[in-house]
Write a structure and sequence with these properties.
Number of helices: 15
Oligomer: single chain
Structural class: mainly alpha
Radius of gyration: 30 Å
Helix content: 40-55%
Strand order of the largest sheet: 1-2-3
CATH class of the largest domain: Mainly Alpha
Amino acid sequence: MSIQKVEKGVYKIRWREGGRQKGLNVHGSHELVKKILRKKLSARDENRHLDIKREVNFRMSGLIDRYWEQYASKKKSQDREKSILEGIRDELGQLFVREVDGAGVQSWYQGLTETKGLSAGTAVRHFNVMHHMMAKAATIWSKDTGIDRNPADAVEVKRPDDQRDRHLNTEEIEGMKAALDEKMYRKAGKGINQTFFRLRLIVLIALTTGMRKAEIFGLNWSDLLYREELIAVRAKLKGGKMRYVPMPAELALEFKRYPAVFGEDRIFPPEPGTKRERQRVDKSFETILEMAGIKDFRFHDLRHTFASWYMMNGGDLYELAKILGHSNIKMTERYAKLAKSHIAKTGSTAREMWRLMEGKKPEQLQGTV
């Protein structure tokens, strides 16, 4: 670029654009000429950016392949991510990445619930994969994809509030514990039923600590701090921060009764030969619920049960947030109302839970739930 004086009050400006030299005569002061040249260069740069976006023809199918190879295939949830990515490929794979704007992502996201019938929570998990993939497309792969902003940022995501209030009452807690104890043994004195022996400990952990299912499956024997009466929760969920939850003596005894797998630090390793890291308890847990006569209940409601009884026993809301691993106190405030209309503090919530399961009702608990 250059500015040359042609005559008094007339200047010629030159700049390069689109691989060609351009020039223009400008009448006015030298300051005005410089200002006009800056505008020309700015317009050139904007046009160059748009030209690049128009010229890049990188398809979504190629983006999906790259994202799978570099990110999704390395995750523990790779099976689920593979399925989600294939769903995106079926719907958007033939489009260029630059064609998938905010409206396109919004339409795809809405179709997950309205057309495919997925639950709100499942749709959010699908969206999270899309958002992460498009974030990479707009940053480290922007030269290939032709986009520099994540179109998924423009989408309003309806995350399930999960304000479900279902928790077990006194009789249901007793019934669940009785069913777990009964199902732990095979009929006709044929020994321990390993499936339900395992489920029994998993349920007892959830009910007396408030841990999430995935956190329980992620437990190692080395996470049990018997001397401190604590469990270290190292599972990388909800922010990936490690926290500690109380371990009552009764639960510690249950851990000591449970056999470890030789050469395996995990308390609940996947069964030999299984292809998936993800573990489930759905069918066996449904059997226990049916035996105990408990309706409209999910495994995650065991966490709600712990939190509800914690507050009904006069627990502190901020301490509960730490135990549950909530990053925002607003997530815990849903339990605050339970503290006002129920029993005063009677000791350790976990210990009260054990008393309830064993049918030992403290006088203060009679008729409160």
